[in-house]
Amino acid sequence: MPRLDYPEAVVDLITELKRLPGVGPRSAERISVWMIQHNKANPEALSIALDTAREKVSLCDVCGFFSTLGECDLCDDDGRDVSSICVVEQPTDVLPLERSGAFGGYYHCLGGKLSPLDNTSPDDLNIAGLLRRISQSEAEGLEVIIALSSDVEGEATGNYLVEVLSKLECSVTRIAQGLPAGGGLEHADELTLMRALQGRR
User: Fold this and answer.
1) Quick one: which of 54, 51, 103, 112 has its CA closest to 74?
2) Is residue 4 classed as helix, strand or coil in its secondary structure?
């Protein structure tokens, strides 16, 4: 006797949802069933929103942040400080920095980090665009701030950028690393404590 399963259309929906990052088999199943059963679910609106976002949103050719129909709110903002560029891994890294209100310059998204295991080399990242922006900049005392993750790949990418940027007319700094606000010493690992001590002020 064959094992009973969802109808084929539901199985296909579950399969597609499982492809999304952070969505496992059980979550995909729950989402699929909810979308079919509940009155509040509006799959047509979701489909239209997905199509619209896919059609209208792309990555800016200059900074790598999200642009809508070729217009980038970041690059088009004349109120930003032209003397500083903050380098991040992904476009999603820009938003937490912006929400902090601590930085008012421009951003540059690399589109990832160096990773030999994933075959990600400097040519796969938006490093050439960064070098072009710096060489074309007319700002005096240009500062490039490297704000990458503190894992092995992030460190390797940061070190590579420091080496490459040392040949250009700009100062290079890296964001400080250490203990999170409200975090206790007993929960910190040795590397975090070491960097917190090294970056003391």
Assistant:
1) 103
2) coil
In residues, how long is the chain?
A: 201
Say if CB 126 and CB 62 are below 8 A apart.
no
- Tokens coding 175: 């964001």
The residue type at 125: L
Domains of the chain: 79-174 (3.40.1360.10)
Structure tokens belonging to residue 25: 């088999």
Mean pLDDT by runs of 10 across the 201 residues of the chain is: 84 94 94 89 89 94 93 93 95 92 94 89 93 91 92 91 92 84 74 76 67
pLDDT at residue 201, rounded to an integer:
67
Which residues have CB under 8 Å from 63's CB, separation 6+?
72, 74, 75, 106, 107, 108, 109, 129, 133
Q: Is 199 helix (H, G, I), strand (E, B) or coil?
A: coil
Label residues 111-136 b or e (16+ Cβ within 10 Å = b). bebbbeeeebeeeebbbebbeebbee
What pLDDT score does 21 carry?
92
